Amino acid sequence: MSDLNFWKGRRVLLTGHTGFKGSWLLLWLQQLGARVWATALEPEPEPNLFRALAAARPPGEQWSHNLADLAHGEALAALVEQCQPEVVLHLAAQPLVRRSYADPMGTWATNVMGSLQLLEALKPLRHACAVVMVTTDKVYQNREWAYGYREPDRLGGHDPYSASKAAAEIAIASWRASFCGTAPHQTPHLRIATARAGNVIGGGDWAADRIVPDAMRALAAGEPIAVRNPAATRPWQHVLEPLGGYLRLAEALATDPEPPCEAFNFGPQLESNRPVRDLVHTMLSHWPGEWIDQSDPSAPHEAGLLHLQIDKAHHRLGWQPRWDYATTIERTVGWYKAVHEGASPLECCLADLHAYQASST
Question: Is the pTM of this model over 0.90?
Answer without folding.
Answer: yes
